[in-house]
Amino acid sequence: MNLIPYVNIMMGTKSISRFSSGNTLALTQRPFAMAGFCPQNQDPQSGWFFHPDRRFIEGIRLTHQPSPWINDYGTFNMMVQSDTVHNTSAGAWSGYRIEESVFRPDYLMLQILRARTKFELTPTERGAAIRLSIGSDMPTVFSVFPVRGNYTYRIDKDCIVGCTDGHSMDAAKDFKMYFVIRFLDGAMDAENTRIVGENGKGNAAVHVALKGKVVEARVGISYISEEQAFLSIEQDCGTRSFATLCEEAEDIWESYLHRIEVDTDTDEEFETFYSCLYRTFLFPHKAYEIDREGNRIHYCPFDGSTRPGVRYTDNGFWDTYRTVYPLFSMIARDEFAEMLEGFVNDYLDGGWLPRWPSIGEVGCMPSTLIDAVIAEAAQDHIVSKEVLEHALEGMLNHANNEAPEARYGRNGCKAYLKYGYVPREMNRESVNLTLDAAYGDWCIAQVAKALGKPDAMVQEYLKRSKNYKNLFDPETGFMRGRDVNGKMADNFDPFSWGGEYTEGSAWQSSFAVQHDFDGLADLYGGKENLLKKLDDLFAAPPIYRVGGYGTEIHEMSEMAACDLGQFAISNQPSFHFPWIYAYFGEPEKCEYWLRKACEEYFSADDDGFPGDEDNGTMAAWYIFACLGIYPLCPGKPMVKVDQTLVRNIKILGVPFVK
Q1: 217 and 353 in one domain?
Q2: Angle at CA 31, nearest 5°, toward 604 and 639?
Q3: What is the mean pLDDT of residues 329-354?
Q4: 486 in the Ramachandran plot: left (φ > 0), alpha (ψ -120 to 50) or beta?
Q5: Are 489 and 471 in contact, with CB atoms under 8 Å apart?
Q6: Between 20 and 30 A from 622 (CA), which of 236, 382, 451, 601?
Q7: What is the spatial distance between Cα 217 and Cα 208, in angstroms, rounded to a whole number?
Q8: 353 and 498: one domain?
Q9: 580: domain CATH number?
Q10: pLDDT digit string (tens) for 560-585?
């Protein structure tokens, strides 16, 4: 059975900055590949450059964007024009009929109405194959438009060679993306191809004059050199036909989607399941290349050099540690091992394990939750001892040393070591910084134990992992910030967002003790009292106050729209709440909230997520909910419930037994 037809790659794309239904892109891309492709039909400088309701396009964009909040890098836009040729994407736009288009993971087809051209694309590992079927009787050009940064182009007899230095919020020294678009069988009229604007400036574009009615091209990219971009085409495409490359992409996607096989009661549930499974295989992106000798090499954002080994990017660990990597430990172990090797290479290259890389380090979310990813890999024996040793070095570094820039390491590390918590006047989000550091310390203990380190080291970090207790307020039953003198703030409001908390209030932040729920229950006076507090969370009204943010943020709007009390399934800190019931022996409550959330707030539609999907993590949450298992604490075995939303489950071809 083919599963690609059940995938809606536009799931979650019907979003705006003030209200997220996923904040996803409709990505035609091979799993974890270095290049993705998506139509562009609104503000190219914005992270929200595609919306499914707009019945026009400005072109097909090569994209690496992991989130609209991070924005894109190493990107350009491709469009076909006839009639009047415009020099900007905004002028070149054309109508298209979305109902006559094909949006699939392995294949994209749009009819560009003004140019009367069918634009087909199938992705490769580091580029794409393109086929244009031209119906216009007027001269037709293939245009390449800039998006961000400076662009240079060179025209060869059968190709365009380009370069952009555009990137967004990250630190990436001397970053460049080189790209080649090679036209086959004499389809490029080099003599009449022209560069417009100032070559080397942000407004530079190129118009390739085309010959013939059916035109094929191949795209290759590199972060290292022009030569590597040419080599990407050679390695990915060779002399294979467009049809053959389409078949390859289809076969690869089918093999990934078949890693979990399920039956469902309805087609809608089946489509939602496989649309979510597709999302889990998009990120992180490969950021390494293969040289002519077959060696893996990568651009190093710390100094701009080329280094040996693999690298991965475009991933926020604060979001993804909760579900993505535990899922990979089940169905993508080899890929997980290579990813972690790449993350460790960041430590070896620049001294810090990654936190939120998007080519370079962004660091837009707090804490070092890669700790949990490493602990998960250690528990499941994913990586070699050598990689795990280096990973532990990196963990110990950020657990004990303040980074020179806020984008690296654990924010508030020095204060955490001094006080046993991060004081609220010294760092914003001090509660979450403290809780995440305590969990990170527990993860260090697990990795140290797996590596056979001295028991004294293990016990030291287990002791530090209890620091979450320093913020518990027995009077209110919430985690609360303290100042350097140990005093909590007056006039406490559990519905107030921000300030001491990350993307939530005390309600969403006070149960972030994944590694020690038994210890948390003791603080409440027993599991019955903790479960009563959890009952109160689900029963509370979904109200919020802007608090430390000073204005409404979209996560507040989405929590209220879902109306699940203070269970903000719209954002990652709430993901584990139902599963706490299962952990403490009340699975029926867990099952109730899982079914309600999945059936009412997830669908394969363009507005099918209840909030930011974030690099596969919300999609993976849905997958786990359907299977009836959950990584309540990455680094420990999963929690299970009897009831599932799917049946006849096979994982990697084997019947699934919980």
Answers
A1: no
A2: 65
A3: 98
A4: left
A5: no
A6: 382
A7: 11
A8: yes
A9: 1.20.1610.10
A10: 999 899 999 999 999 999 999 999 99
